[in-house]
Write a structure and sequence with these properties.
With 350 residues, the protein is α/β, with parallel strands linked by helices. Among the domains are: 72 residues, no CATH class; 100 residues, no CATH class. The chain is built from 11 helices and 12 strands. The strands form 2 sheets. Strands 6-7-8-3-9-10-12-11 form an 8-stranded mixed sheet, with helices on both faces. It has a 4-stranded antiparallel sheet with strand order 2-1-4-5.
Length: 350
């Protein structure tokens, strides 16, 4: 039951997660920070699925884990169901963790190989003391049935199952406490394409049946579009665009989003042969020393000599999107044309 008076289930305000870099064996001198998440703000409504996309190293997984307070924020605020949990102690977080769970990326590494499936799925029930030994067995059987696994799976071990089945076990464990909010951290990236579709469909069915709210982290844009209500695009620790899922694909406004979508192959050979992909030059800059102003300007095919390298673009509303680009209107109107960027080996970044 929500206690936030009908407001967003989750609010993130100017969230920062920096990891210290130290040097020296004895003194551990502080020499810098990895700015994994750097000033991120958004909200998620109850029952919504928000997709979070971006290339590897942009801070997606760090953001998801920090929202669940698996990492301690460096700054900003996290408000879940009307309660500020930014600085909550482990004792205070214990009852809140029943409402927020996580499905991990690797179904092979996220399950203890020495524990039976029944023990894995039932462990949250025992940890939170909400079921007796007899009740745990009954609820585990129900959970396994919900995710499409036979009841006798409880007596078997993770190595006896395929990758898709292991991910179903992870889902059963996440659902065991009847949470309101689930962070899905690339839950299908390690699976075959046919199995990916099964897990995504299962997630949608579970959302409908249990009124779940998802933050769905992925790098596969097709999967994200299929399951998401809105999509957040991240680049190097910052949000660059937020928009409804279909509208983002049909009318991307930020240059980074434009380049991501242009790289998706079109399943029509005639169209694909005539289509020109807009390519990003260079490698992802280091989060230890990110570029000044617009962090994408060192790789942006639409970069302009004025403002881009001198003034940081703020997130602003534009045509139903929230976008951080000085020239989004001109790019959308075709007034600024993309240019080829130098290959990675010749681009100076950071």
């Amino acid at each position: 039951m929500s206690t936030n008076g009908g407001g967003p289930l989750l609010e993130v305000d100017d969230l920062r997660v920096w990891f210290k870099l130290t040097s020296g064996v004895v003194l551990d001198r502080h020499v810098g920070d990895i700015k994994a998440v750097d000033g991120v703000s958004f909200s998620i409504a109850r029952g919504e699925t928000v997709g979070l996309v971006g290339e590897s190293g942009c801070g997606k997984s760090t953001l998801g884990r920090t929202i669940l307070r698996l990492y301690k924020p460096t700054g900003g605020r996290i408000v879940f169901d009307g309660k500020d949990i930014t600085t909550s102690s482990e004792t205070d977080l214990h009852p809140i963790r029943r409402k927020m769970q996580m499905v991990f990326q690797d179904p092979y590494a996220s399950l203890n190989p020495r524990h039976s499936v029944g023990r894995i799925v039932g462990e949250p029930l025992r940890t939170h003391g909400i079921a007796t030994r007899r009740e745990v067995g009954r609820q585990v059987a129900q959970l396994l049935n919900v995710v499409g696994l036979p009841a006798d799976a409880a007596n078997r071990y993770p190595h006896e199952f395929s990758g898709g089945q292991r991910q179903r076990i992870g889902l059963a464990r996440a659902l065991s406490l009847n949470p309101d909010f689930v962070v899905c951290d690339e839950p299908v990236s390690a699976l075959d394409v046919s199995i990916q579709a099964q897990i995504v469909n299962l997630l949608e069915d579970l959302q409908r049946d249990f009124n779940l709210t998802y933050l769905f982290i992925a790098h596969d844009l097709a999967v994200v579009r299929h399951i998401s209500t809105r999509i957040i695009v991240m680049y190097l620790g910052k949000i660059v665009e937020i928009a409804p899922a279909d509208d983002l694909y049909e009318n991307p406004l930020h240059p980074y989003t434009v380049t991501l979508l242009s790289a998706i192959p079109v399943p029509d050979p005639k169209v694909e042969r005539t289509r020109r992909a807009i390519r990003v030059g260079g490698d992802l800059p280091s989060p230890v020393n990110p570029p000044n102003a617009c962090r994408f300007h060192t790789r942006c095919p639409f970069v302009q000599p004025t403002r881009c390298a001198d003034e940081e673009p703020r997130l602003r509303e534009l045509n139903g999107h929230v976008v951080a680009c000085h020239y989004a209107e001109a790019i959308k109107a075709g007034e600024i044309k993309p240019v080829e960027r130098p290959p990675a080996s010749t681009v100076a970044v950071g």
